[in-house]
# Entry
Amino acid sequence: MRHFAGGWGRGGRGEAPPPADDAAAWLTGALPDDWFTERPDITIDRDEILIIGRLPVPDLGEDASAAERASAEAGRIASFRESTRERRIGIAKQAEHRYRRKVSWGARAGETDELFTTYGAPVMTRLRQPDRQVLDTLIDAGVARSRSEALAWCVRLVGEHADQWLGQLREAMGAVDELRRQGPTL
# Structure
């Protein structure tokens, strides 16, 4: 039996983690129905599965100030974090074993977002999931051979239009994936 010791993907043991195409559905089924007001946002990369759920907004009435609302939202998130800790750990252990990725959590209440746990993958520096996704897109597209090379490329060449260009690159890769699915099977 394998135990998660951090980093199964690139930079870890050198082996790719298993596909996680069904991870969002599996997690949606594993999560209690009463935790979130809507389906949680589940983001997956080679190293981490990040689950962020929306909580009910505390009702303070119309006279509440922005500071009071922010405090109430932070309190709602803190209460959720504490009251669900053991169950979240259990779900995370199951998912980590199944998908060989670190599971991280966060919550939203009103305008307040908070991440409880996130995985920092070592790549010359510790990067959070959105940053790793940029690097992995460049690798998948053949622009770079490694995360280190992709990071150096980003520093030199990616400017203020990075989001637009990476979106176009992901769309093109999606079209290639669709063509592969439509092609003959061996």
